[in-house]
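Record 1 of the preview.
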Amino acid sequence: MEYYNQVIETAFGNWEIQANDHYLFQISHLEEPNNKAEKPNSLTQKAFNQLNEYFEGKRKNFDFILNPEIGTSFQKEVWKLVSNIPYGKTISYQEIALKLDNPGSVRAVGAANGKNPIPIIIPCHRVIGSDGRLTGYAYGIKLKKQLLLFEKAISPDLFD
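->
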């Protein structure tokens, strides 16, 4: 199977979008400037366009189907719940565990969130600690805070 990639440059850094012929399967925040050769296809271009609209403040929802071969059944349940967190809102890991009818799975919810293959589209940055603290984000708390401030999901006053 052939793989495709495309990079979007944003105020929040560069993000690499990866897809095959059927599914978007990975979005990665790049620490270094992009020096990879890009090979876009229709899916990477669609993700590029939708992410660009998001980062311009014009898009609040995405319409992608995750590759069904990625993730465990538990991870997929978590990602589905996370996908439904509205723009500008947050939810705690504990609340997700309760929605799964498994209150003891808070750490497992966090681990599943950390394995999210398509951040922003599955908005794992919107999941916070039950005490309101910003905890756990694969690309760092600083970026999580920036994304939540961008969406006005948290108040900048919290960080004075």
